[in-house]
Design goal:
- The structure is a single chain.
- The protein is of the alpha/beta class and about 180 residues long.
- It is globular and about 50 Å long.
- Helix 3 links the parallel strand 2 and strand 3.
- Strands 4-3-2-5-6-7 form a six-stranded mixed β-sheet.
- The protein starts with a helix and ends with a strand.
- The structure holds 1-O-pyrophosphono-5-O-phosphono-alpha-D-ribofuranose (PRP) and guanine.
- Keywords: Glycosyltransferase, Transferase.
- This is Hypoxanthine phosphoribosyltransferase.
- GO terms for molecular function: hypoxanthine phosphoribosyltransferase activity; magnesium ion binding.
């Protein structure tokens, strides 16, 4: 499917900036401070959830000041669309995390099906504890479970389709240096 770049540019031109660069960086700093305070002695395996978690993980990790191992996993249910479907595993973790603390790092907790499935998977595969960090938690009543929360959430955003800082609009604008909401979505 060919992409209409003029449309992609127009989406950015018309988007509402929910959090600017400085606000997102400050939020990442707060998340890092909380993780440093709580996980410094846990020797965790940190899993970046690709693709969306890439920018958050890349900004967060240098702010963590304790020993950890880094790996990635890739589970997706949006696949460049703005509505989620079934969870599809593109890459399961390769590094062993049996009897280890795991820290899952992702961009957004929306309905939470993705994070819940990843947490279940890590527990089932033998992690001793699973911690979760997201850059953004979206406010609405459609969570996969009513009490579904990340242990660490940088920002809370309104119920709109957002992009930037790793989050895409139709595969684009993961590079945007702020968090934006698509006009009309
Ligand atoms: O809380 P949920 O409603 O489950 O949605 C959150 C997930 O959706 C996005 O991933 P996506 O499937 O778009 O893949 P991507 O990371 O490659 O963009 C995002 O990165 C989260 O992993
Ligand atoms: N880019 C992006 N991905 C998502 N995955 C779940 N919700 C969202 C969202 O609002 N934006």
């Amino acid at each position: 499917m060919s992409v209409d770049l003029a449309h992609i540019r127009q989406v950015m031109a018309e988007a509402d900036c929910l959090f600017n660069h400085a606000e997102v960086e400050a939020a990442i700093g707060r998340v890092a401070a909380a993780i440093n305070a709580e996980l410094a002695e846990r020797n965790p395996v940190v899993f970046c959830v690709m693709n969306g978690g890439l920018v958050f993980a890349g900004k967060l990790l240098p702010l963590l000041d304790f020993p950890l191992e880094l790996s990635y996993l890739h589970a997706t249910r949006y696949r460049n669309e703005t509505r989620g479907g079934d969870l599809f595993w593109k890459a399961k973790p390769e590094i062993s995390f049996i009897d280890r603390d795991v820290l899952i790092v992702d961009d957004i907790l929306d309905e939470g099906h993705t994070l819940a499935a990843i947490v279940d998977f890590c527990r089932h595969e033998g992690a001793s504890a699973v911690h979760t960090a997201v850059l953004v938690d979206k406010r609405h009543q459609r969570k996969a479970a009513p009490d579904l929360k990340a242990d660490y959430a940088g920002l809370s955003c309104e119920d709109r389709y957002v992009f930037g800082y790793g989050m895409d609009y139709k595969g684009y604008w993961r590079n945007a240096a702020g968090i934006y909401a698509v006009k009309g979505l």
